[in-house]
Design a protein that fits this description.
The protein has 14 helices and 21 strands. With 453 residues, it is α/β, with parallel strands linked by helices. The strands form four sheets. It has a 14-stranded parallel beta sheet with strand order 3-4-6-8-11-13-14-15-16-17-18-19-20-21, with helices on both faces. The protein has a three-stranded parallel beta sheet with strand order 5-7-10. It has a two-stranded antiparallel sheet with strand order 1-2. β20, α14 and β21 form a beta-alpha-beta unit. α1 runs antiparallel to α2, α8 packs parallel to α9 and α9 packs parallel to α10. The longest helix has 14 residues. The radius of gyration is 23 Å and the shape is globular. The protein starts with 5 loop residues before the first helix and ends with a strand.
Amino acid sequence: MIHVGEGLFKAILANRHDDAARLIYSDWLEDNGFEARARFIRTMIEYHNLPTWDADRYVLHPQWSLPVDDLAVRQEFLGDVLVPVKRLGFQRGLPDWLDYKHLNGNWRKEYEEDLEWYPGTGVELQIVPSQKAHCFTELPSELTGLTVHCQGQRVKLQFAKESNNLNIIRIVGSSGPRMRMDPTNYFNFRNTDATVGSISSKGGLKKLRSLELNSFRLPITQLNKFLANLPESCRTLSLIGSIRGADFDQLQVPAFVETLDVGHNGLVGVHVMSWLDRQELPRLKALRIGYNPMGANTLRQIICHPQLHNLVSLELNDIHPHDKSIVVQSLEESHLPDLRALEIAYNQLSTQVLLEIFGSGNFALLEHLNLDGNQLTDDFFTDLPHTALPSVRSLSIQASEVTLSVLSTIQQRQLFPRLQVLCLGKQKFFKKDVEIVKIFTSKLKLLHFQVPD
Protein backbone atom coordinates (compact mmCIF):
# COMPACT_ATOMS: atom_id res chain seq x y z
CA MET A 1 0.00 0.00 0.00
CA ILE A 2 2.72 2.44 1.01
CA HIS A 3 5.67 3.00 -1.28
CA VAL A 4 7.39 6.28 -0.31
CA GLY A 5 8.16 7.72 3.09
CA GLU A 6 6.63 4.62 4.64
CA GLY A 7 7.82 5.27 8.16
CA LEU A 8 6.73 8.90 8.10
CA PHE A 9 3.34 8.01 6.70
CA LYS A 10 2.84 5.38 9.42
CA ALA A 11 3.64 8.09 11.96
CA ILE A 12 0.71 10.09 10.56
CA LEU A 13 -1.57 7.07 10.90
CA ALA A 14 -0.51 6.72 14.52
CA ASN A 15 -1.05 10.46 15.18
CA ARG A 16 -3.77 11.40 12.72
CA HIS A 17 -4.82 14.53 14.67
CA ASP A 18 -1.25 15.85 14.91
CA ASP A 19 -0.17 18.37 12.27
CA ALA A 20 3.50 17.97 13.19
CA ALA A 21 3.66 14.45 11.69
CA ARG A 22 2.14 15.76 8.43
CA LEU A 23 4.57 18.68 8.25
CA ILE A 24 7.55 16.35 8.75
CA TYR A 25 6.16 14.19 5.95
CA SER A 26 5.82 17.27 3.72
CA ASP A 27 9.48 18.12 4.36
CA TRP A 28 10.43 14.62 3.24
CA LEU A 29 8.29 14.99 0.10
CA GLU A 30 9.98 18.28 -0.80
CA ASP A 31 13.45 16.83 -0.27
CA ASN A 32 12.57 13.94 -2.58
CA GLY A 33 11.21 15.95 -5.50
CA PHE A 34 7.50 16.11 -4.62
CA GLU A 35 7.36 19.89 -4.15
CA ALA A 36 3.74 20.27 -5.28
CA ARG A 37 2.46 17.66 -2.82
CA ALA A 38 4.54 19.16 0.00
CA ARG A 39 3.16 22.62 -0.70
CA PHE A 40 -0.36 21.20 -0.89
CA ILE A 41 -0.11 19.63 2.59
CA ARG A 42 1.31 22.78 4.16
CA THR A 43 -1.29 25.03 2.53
CA MET A 44 -4.20 22.85 3.66
CA ILE A 45 -2.88 22.66 7.23
CA GLU A 46 -2.49 26.43 7.40
CA TYR A 47 -6.01 26.84 6.00
CA HIS A 48 -7.48 24.28 8.41
CA ASN A 49 -6.07 26.03 11.47
CA LEU A 50 -7.46 29.48 10.66
CA PRO A 51 -10.77 30.71 12.11
CA THR A 52 -13.59 30.37 9.58
CA TRP A 53 -13.93 34.17 9.40
CA ASP A 54 -10.24 34.86 8.67
CA ALA A 55 -9.58 36.60 5.32
CA ASP A 56 -6.43 34.49 4.85
CA ARG A 57 -8.70 31.53 4.08
CA TYR A 58 -9.72 33.18 0.82
CA VAL A 59 -6.07 33.43 -0.20
CA LEU A 60 -5.28 29.84 0.74
CA HIS A 61 -8.46 28.06 -0.38
CA PRO A 62 -8.04 28.25 -4.18
CA GLN A 63 -4.40 27.22 -3.83
CA TRP A 64 -5.47 23.75 -2.67
CA SER A 65 -9.06 23.41 -3.93
CA LEU A 66 -8.39 24.15 -7.60
CA PRO A 67 -5.52 21.64 -7.97
CA VAL A 68 -7.42 18.86 -6.21
CA ASP A 69 -10.43 19.40 -8.52
CA ASP A 70 -8.20 18.21 -11.36
CA LEU A 71 -8.51 14.39 -11.45
CA ALA A 72 -4.93 13.81 -12.61
CA VAL A 73 -3.52 16.05 -9.89
CA ARG A 74 -5.84 14.44 -7.37
CA GLN A 75 -4.48 10.99 -8.19
CA GLU A 76 -0.92 12.34 -7.96
CA PHE A 77 -1.56 13.87 -4.55
CA LEU A 78 -2.92 10.56 -3.30
CA GLY A 79 0.62 9.38 -3.95
CA ASP A 80 1.49 6.55 -1.61
CA VAL A 81 -2.05 6.05 -0.39
CA LEU A 82 -4.06 3.17 -1.78
CA VAL A 83 -6.93 4.65 -3.80
CA PRO A 84 -10.10 2.98 -2.53
CA VAL A 85 -13.37 2.34 -4.27
CA LYS A 86 -15.00 4.69 -1.76
CA ARG A 87 -15.31 8.38 -2.60
CA LEU A 88 -13.03 10.59 -0.53
CA GLY A 89 -12.07 14.21 -0.06
CA PHE A 90 -8.99 15.94 1.31
CA GLN A 91 -8.32 17.67 4.60
CA ARG A 92 -5.03 18.84 6.12
CA GLY A 93 -3.28 17.70 2.95
CA LEU A 94 -4.28 14.03 2.93
CA PRO A 95 -7.38 11.93 2.12
CA ASP A 96 -10.31 12.49 4.43
CA TRP A 97 -14.12 12.25 4.59
CA LEU A 98 -14.41 8.69 3.34
CA ASP A 99 -17.85 7.85 1.92
CA TYR A 100 -19.41 4.64 3.26
CA LYS A 101 -22.64 5.07 1.28
CA HIS A 102 -25.19 3.52 3.62
CA LEU A 103 -25.60 4.12 7.33
CA ASN A 104 -25.81 0.60 8.65
CA GLY A 105 -24.01 -1.54 11.18
CA ASN A 106 -21.20 -2.48 8.79
CA TRP A 107 -19.65 0.95 8.27
CA ARG A 108 -17.92 0.95 11.68
CA LYS A 109 -16.16 -2.31 10.88
CA GLU A 110 -15.13 -1.02 7.45
CA TYR A 111 -13.87 2.22 8.98
CA GLU A 112 -11.74 0.41 11.55
CA GLU A 113 -10.25 -1.75 8.80
CA ASP A 114 -9.54 1.32 6.67
CA LEU A 115 -7.67 3.01 9.53
CA GLU A 116 -4.69 0.85 8.51
CA TRP A 117 -4.18 3.05 5.43
CA TYR A 118 -6.62 5.95 5.80
CA PRO A 119 -5.17 9.00 7.61
CA GLY A 120 -8.47 10.90 7.82
CA THR A 121 -10.81 11.60 10.71
CA GLY A 122 -14.17 12.08 8.96
CA VAL A 123 -16.77 9.88 7.25
CA GLU A 124 -19.85 10.37 5.08
CA LEU A 125 -22.95 8.24 5.50
CA GLN A 126 -26.30 8.04 3.76
CA ILE A 127 -29.63 7.24 5.40
CA VAL A 128 -31.21 4.17 3.78
CA PRO A 129 -34.97 4.26 3.00
CA SER A 130 -35.84 1.73 5.69
CA GLN A 131 -33.97 3.59 8.43
CA LYS A 132 -35.95 6.60 9.65
CA ALA A 133 -34.19 7.01 12.99
CA HIS A 134 -30.62 6.65 14.13
CA CYS A 135 -28.78 7.20 17.39
CA PHE A 136 -25.04 7.77 17.04
CA THR A 137 -23.37 5.81 19.80
CA GLU A 138 -20.07 3.98 20.26
CA LEU A 139 -18.35 5.93 17.50
CA PRO A 140 -14.67 5.12 16.90
CA SER A 141 -12.43 7.38 18.99
CA GLU A 142 -10.51 8.48 15.87
CA LEU A 143 -13.68 9.86 14.29
CA THR A 144 -14.11 13.62 14.73
CA GLY A 145 -16.06 14.52 11.57
CA LEU A 146 -19.43 13.16 10.41
CA THR A 147 -21.58 13.95 7.37
CA VAL A 148 -25.04 12.39 7.08
CA HIS A 149 -27.04 12.55 3.84
CA CYS A 150 -30.77 12.13 4.47
CA GLN A 151 -31.73 11.76 0.80
CA GLY A 152 -34.82 13.92 1.20
CA GLN A 153 -36.35 11.59 3.80
CA ARG A 154 -37.98 12.54 7.08
CA VAL A 155 -35.56 11.22 9.67
CA LYS A 156 -34.81 11.39 13.39
CA LEU A 157 -31.18 11.78 14.45
CA GLN A 158 -29.88 11.57 17.98
CA PHE A 159 -26.36 12.13 19.29
CA ALA A 160 -25.65 10.37 22.56
CA LYS A 161 -22.83 11.10 24.99
CA GLU A 162 -20.68 8.54 23.19
CA SER A 163 -20.52 11.07 20.30
CA ASN A 164 -18.33 13.41 22.31
CA ASN A 165 -15.28 13.27 20.04
CA LEU A 166 -17.18 14.80 17.12
CA ASN A 167 -16.16 18.36 16.35
CA ILE A 168 -17.66 18.70 12.85
CA ILE A 169 -21.19 17.58 11.98
CA ARG A 170 -22.87 18.09 8.61
CA ILE A 171 -26.47 17.05 8.06
CA VAL A 172 -27.56 17.37 4.42
CA GLY A 173 -31.28 16.88 3.95
CA SER A 174 -31.91 16.97 0.22
CA SER A 175 -30.35 14.91 -2.52
CA GLY A 176 -28.80 18.09 -3.88
CA PRO A 177 -25.20 19.21 -3.25
CA ARG A 178 -23.40 16.85 -0.94
CA MET A 179 -21.78 19.38 1.34
CA ARG A 180 -20.53 22.91 1.58
CA MET A 181 -17.03 22.61 2.91
CA ASP A 182 -15.88 26.19 2.48
CA PRO A 183 -17.14 29.74 2.18
CA THR A 184 -16.00 30.00 -1.43
CA ASN A 185 -18.14 27.11 -2.69
CA TYR A 186 -21.62 28.10 -3.85
CA PHE A 187 -24.53 25.74 -4.17
CA ASN A 188 -28.12 26.54 -5.05
CA PHE A 189 -30.58 25.10 -2.56
CA ARG A 190 -33.34 27.36 -3.76
CA ASN A 191 -35.15 24.67 -5.73
CA THR A 192 -34.57 21.70 -3.47
CA ASP A 193 -37.08 20.30 -1.01
CA ALA A 194 -35.66 20.45 2.48
CA THR A 195 -35.94 17.36 4.64
CA VAL A 196 -38.18 17.82 7.65
CA GLY A 197 -36.85 15.80 10.54
CA SER A 198 -35.74 15.93 14.15
CA ILE A 199 -32.37 16.10 15.85
CA SER A 200 -31.38 15.91 19.50
CA SER A 201 -28.32 15.65 21.68
CA LYS A 202 -28.32 13.83 25.01
CA GLY A 203 -25.08 14.77 26.66
CA GLY A 204 -23.07 14.46 23.46
CA LEU A 205 -21.26 16.94 21.19
CA LYS A 206 -19.26 18.59 23.97
CA LYS A 207 -16.32 19.12 21.58
CA LEU A 208 -18.37 20.36 18.63
CA ARG A 209 -16.77 23.24 16.70
CA SER A 210 -18.88 23.36 13.55
CA LEU A 211 -22.50 22.43 12.83
CA GLU A 212 -24.11 22.42 9.38
CA LEU A 213 -27.81 21.71 8.96
CA ASN A 214 -28.20 22.25 5.24
CA SER A 215 -31.56 21.67 3.52
CA PHE A 216 -32.59 19.82 6.68
CA ARG A 217 -35.67 21.62 7.94
CA LEU A 218 -36.75 21.41 11.57
CA PRO A 219 -39.70 23.08 13.30
CA ILE A 220 -38.29 26.38 14.56
CA THR A 221 -39.01 25.53 18.22
CA GLN A 222 -37.10 22.26 17.94
CA LEU A 223 -34.23 23.93 16.10
CA ASN A 224 -33.93 26.59 18.80
CA LYS A 225 -33.98 23.93 21.52
CA PHE A 226 -31.16 22.04 19.81
CA LEU A 227 -29.12 25.22 19.27
CA ALA A 228 -29.61 26.19 22.91
CA ASN A 229 -27.80 22.98 23.96
CA LEU A 230 -24.77 23.50 21.75
CA PRO A 231 -21.44 23.78 23.59
CA GLU A 232 -19.65 27.13 23.59
CA SER A 233 -16.89 25.53 21.51
CA CYS A 234 -19.26 25.55 18.49
CA ARG A 235 -18.24 28.73 16.68
CA THR A 236 -19.51 27.93 13.16
CA LEU A 237 -23.19 27.46 12.31
CA SER A 238 -24.61 26.84 8.82
CA LEU A 239 -28.36 26.76 8.17
CA ILE A 240 -28.45 26.83 4.37
CA GLY A 241 -31.92 26.23 2.98
CA SER A 242 -33.17 25.07 6.38
CA ILE A 243 -35.45 27.83 7.67
CA ARG A 244 -38.73 29.13 6.29
CA GLY A 245 -38.53 32.88 5.83
CA ALA A 246 -41.60 33.44 8.00
CA ASP A 247 -39.87 31.63 10.90
CA PHE A 248 -36.54 33.38 10.57
CA ASP A 249 -37.24 36.20 13.02
CA GLN A 250 -37.76 33.52 15.71
CA LEU A 251 -34.33 31.94 15.14
CA GLN A 252 -32.17 32.07 18.28
CA VAL A 253 -28.49 31.91 17.40
CA PRO A 254 -26.18 31.25 20.38
CA ALA A 255 -24.21 34.36 21.38
CA PHE A 256 -20.87 32.53 21.03
CA VAL A 257 -21.23 31.84 17.26
CA GLU A 258 -18.54 33.56 15.20
CA THR A 259 -19.49 32.42 11.67
CA LEU A 260 -23.10 32.19 10.53
CA ASP A 261 -24.44 31.10 7.12
CA VAL A 262 -28.16 31.54 6.46
CA GLY A 263 -28.14 31.59 2.68
CA HIS A 264 -30.84 30.15 0.40
CA ASN A 265 -33.73 30.58 2.84
CA GLY A 266 -35.94 32.88 0.77
CA LEU A 267 -35.42 35.72 3.23
CA VAL A 268 -36.76 39.19 2.49
CA GLY A 269 -35.95 42.41 4.28
CA VAL A 270 -38.59 42.24 6.98
CA HIS A 271 -37.42 38.77 8.05
CA VAL A 272 -33.79 39.82 8.33
CA MET A 273 -34.29 43.11 10.15
CA SER A 274 -36.79 41.69 12.63
CA TRP A 275 -34.33 38.89 13.41
CA LEU A 276 -31.36 41.23 13.83
CA ASP A 277 -33.29 43.45 16.21
CA ARG A 278 -33.96 40.45 18.48
CA GLN A 279 -30.45 38.97 18.47
CA GLU A 280 -27.35 39.46 20.56
CA LEU A 281 -24.33 38.48 18.49
CA PRO A 282 -21.30 39.97 20.26
CA ARG A 283 -18.80 37.51 18.74
CA LEU A 284 -20.10 37.37 15.19
CA LYS A 285 -17.20 37.86 12.75
CA ALA A 286 -18.55 36.40 9.51
CA LEU A 287 -22.06 36.57 8.09
CA ARG A 288 -23.12 34.80 4.90
CA ILE A 289 -26.62 35.90 4.04
CA GLY A 290 -26.58 35.87 0.25
CA TYR A 291 -28.84 34.04 -2.20
CA ASN A 292 -31.86 35.58 -0.48
CA PRO A 293 -34.09 38.13 -2.31
CA MET A 294 -33.53 40.84 0.29
CA GLY A 295 -33.05 43.80 -2.02
CA ALA A 296 -30.91 46.93 -1.76
CA ASN A 297 -32.75 48.59 1.13
CA THR A 298 -32.08 45.62 3.40
CA LEU A 299 -28.42 45.70 2.38
CA ARG A 300 -28.21 49.24 3.65
CA GLN A 301 -29.84 48.33 6.96
CA ILE A 302 -27.63 45.28 7.43
CA ILE A 303 -24.27 46.98 7.01
CA CYS A 304 -25.30 49.85 9.29
CA HIS A 305 -26.80 47.65 12.01
CA PRO A 306 -25.00 47.92 15.39
CA GLN A 307 -25.09 44.12 15.84
CA LEU A 308 -22.73 43.73 12.86
CA HIS A 309 -20.08 46.38 13.50
CA ASN A 310 -17.48 43.71 14.32
CA LEU A 311 -17.83 41.82 11.04
CA VAL A 312 -14.60 40.77 9.38
CA SER A 313 -16.27 38.87 6.52
CA LEU A 314 -19.58 39.60 4.76
CA GLU A 315 -21.19 37.69 1.87
CA LEU A 316 -24.09 39.34 0.00
CA ASN A 317 -24.16 37.33 -3.22
CA ASP A 318 -27.30 37.41 -5.39
CA ILE A 319 -29.56 39.47 -3.14
CA HIS A 320 -31.63 41.02 -5.98
CA PRO A 321 -30.57 44.67 -5.49
CA HIS A 322 -32.81 46.29 -8.10
CA ASP A 323 -31.96 49.85 -7.04
CA LYS A 324 -28.22 50.02 -7.70
CA SER A 325 -27.91 53.60 -6.39
CA ILE A 326 -28.89 52.38 -2.91
CA VAL A 327 -26.15 49.72 -3.14
CA VAL A 328 -23.57 52.42 -3.84
CA GLN A 329 -24.81 54.65 -1.04
CA SER A 330 -25.01 51.74 1.40
CA LEU A 331 -21.47 50.52 0.84
CA GLU A 332 -20.09 54.06 0.83
CA GLU A 333 -21.69 54.64 4.24
CA SER A 334 -20.91 51.21 5.67
CA HIS A 335 -20.06 51.05 9.37
CA LEU A 336 -17.79 48.01 9.18
CA PRO A 337 -14.32 49.22 10.24
CA ASP A 338 -12.88 45.70 10.58
CA LEU A 339 -14.16 44.30 7.25
CA ARG A 340 -11.48 42.27 5.47
CA ALA A 341 -13.53 40.05 3.11
CA LEU A 342 -16.47 41.12 0.95
CA GLU A 343 -18.46 39.09 -1.57
CA ILE A 344 -21.09 40.79 -3.72
CA ALA A 345 -21.16 38.31 -6.61
CA TYR A 346 -24.05 37.76 -9.06
CA ASN A 347 -25.75 41.07 -8.33
CA GLN A 348 -25.50 42.38 -11.92
CA LEU A 349 -23.65 45.50 -10.78
CA SER A 350 -22.21 47.55 -13.63
CA THR A 351 -18.62 48.77 -13.94
CA GLN A 352 -19.78 52.31 -13.14
CA VAL A 353 -21.56 51.21 -9.96
CA LEU A 354 -18.53 49.21 -8.84
CA LEU A 355 -16.24 52.18 -9.49
CA GLU A 356 -18.48 54.37 -7.37
CA ILE A 357 -18.34 51.82 -4.56
CA PHE A 358 -14.63 51.00 -4.52
CA GLY A 359 -13.27 54.28 -5.82
CA SER A 360 -14.41 55.95 -2.61
CA GLY A 361 -11.39 54.78 -0.62
CA ASN A 362 -13.59 53.24 2.08
CA PHE A 363 -12.19 49.76 1.55
CA ALA A 364 -8.48 50.31 2.08
CA LEU A 365 -8.29 47.36 4.52
CA LEU A 366 -10.17 44.89 2.31
CA GLU A 367 -8.11 41.75 1.64
CA HIS A 368 -10.57 39.56 -0.27
CA LEU A 369 -13.02 40.78 -2.90
CA ASN A 370 -15.39 38.62 -4.95
CA LEU A 371 -17.07 40.36 -7.91
CA ASP A 372 -18.04 37.25 -9.87
CA GLY A 373 -21.14 37.43 -12.05
CA ASN A 374 -21.33 41.22 -12.26
CA GLN A 375 -21.30 43.39 -15.40
CA LEU A 376 -17.62 44.08 -14.94
CA THR A 377 -15.42 45.17 -17.88
CA ASP A 378 -11.76 46.05 -18.36
CA ASP A 379 -12.67 49.71 -17.78
CA PHE A 380 -12.95 49.03 -14.05
CA PHE A 381 -9.20 48.43 -13.90
CA THR A 382 -8.44 51.38 -16.16
CA ASP A 383 -10.47 53.88 -14.13
CA LEU A 384 -10.07 52.56 -10.56
CA PRO A 385 -7.84 54.89 -8.49
CA HIS A 386 -4.61 52.97 -8.04
CA THR A 387 -4.67 53.54 -4.27
CA ALA A 388 -8.31 52.45 -3.83
CA LEU A 389 -7.73 48.81 -2.84
CA PRO A 390 -4.15 48.60 -1.57
CA SER A 391 -4.66 45.61 0.74
CA VAL A 392 -6.46 43.20 -1.62
CA ARG A 393 -4.67 39.85 -1.74
CA SER A 394 -7.44 37.70 -3.25
CA LEU A 395 -9.59 38.91 -6.17
CA SER A 396 -12.21 36.89 -8.08
CA ILE A 397 -13.81 38.35 -11.23
CA GLN A 398 -15.18 35.25 -12.92
CA ALA A 399 -18.33 35.15 -15.07
CA SER A 400 -17.78 38.76 -16.13
CA GLU A 401 -16.76 40.61 -19.31
CA VAL A 402 -13.17 41.07 -18.19
CA THR A 403 -10.40 39.88 -20.57
CA LEU A 404 -6.77 38.89 -20.01
CA SER A 405 -5.81 42.44 -21.02
CA VAL A 406 -6.49 43.48 -17.41
CA LEU A 407 -3.22 41.80 -16.44
CA SER A 408 -1.25 44.42 -18.35
CA THR A 409 -3.42 47.17 -16.87
CA ILE A 410 -2.88 45.89 -13.33
CA GLN A 411 0.86 45.74 -13.90
CA GLN A 412 1.20 49.14 -15.59
CA ARG A 413 -1.00 50.99 -13.06
CA GLN A 414 0.46 49.10 -10.08
CA LEU A 415 -2.97 48.09 -8.81
CA PHE A 416 -3.34 45.70 -5.87
CA PRO A 417 0.32 45.68 -4.71
CA ARG A 418 -0.37 42.82 -2.25
CA LEU A 419 -2.25 40.60 -4.73
CA GLN A 420 -1.53 36.87 -4.36
CA VAL A 421 -4.57 35.12 -5.89
CA LEU A 422 -6.44 36.19 -9.04
CA CYS A 423 -9.31 34.14 -10.50
CA LEU A 424 -10.47 35.21 -13.97
CA GLY A 425 -12.77 32.38 -15.09
CA LYS A 426 -13.01 31.44 -18.77
CA GLN A 427 -10.74 33.52 -21.00
CA LYS A 428 -9.77 33.54 -24.64
CA PHE A 429 -6.01 33.07 -24.74
CA PHE A 430 -3.96 34.65 -27.53
CA LYS A 431 -0.29 34.55 -28.39
CA LYS A 432 0.10 38.15 -27.24
CA ASP A 433 -0.97 37.13 -23.74
CA VAL A 434 1.83 34.61 -23.18
CA GLU A 435 4.39 36.99 -21.69
CA ILE A 436 2.07 38.79 -19.29
CA VAL A 437 0.62 35.46 -18.10
CA LYS A 438 4.16 34.23 -17.41
CA ILE A 439 4.88 37.37 -15.39
CA PHE A 440 1.76 36.99 -13.26
CA THR A 441 2.25 33.24 -12.86
CA SER A 442 5.69 33.87 -11.38
CA LYS A 443 4.53 36.83 -9.28
CA LEU A 444 1.33 35.44 -7.77
CA LYS A 445 0.70 32.36 -5.68
CA LEU A 446 -2.17 31.52 -8.02
CA LEU A 447 -3.41 32.88 -11.36
CA HIS A 448 -6.47 30.88 -12.37
CA PHE A 449 -8.32 31.02 -15.67
CA GLN A 450 -9.80 28.49 -18.08
CA VAL A 451 -9.47 28.46 -21.84
CA PRO A 452 -12.83 27.62 -23.49
CA ASP A 453 -12.98 24.45 -25.61
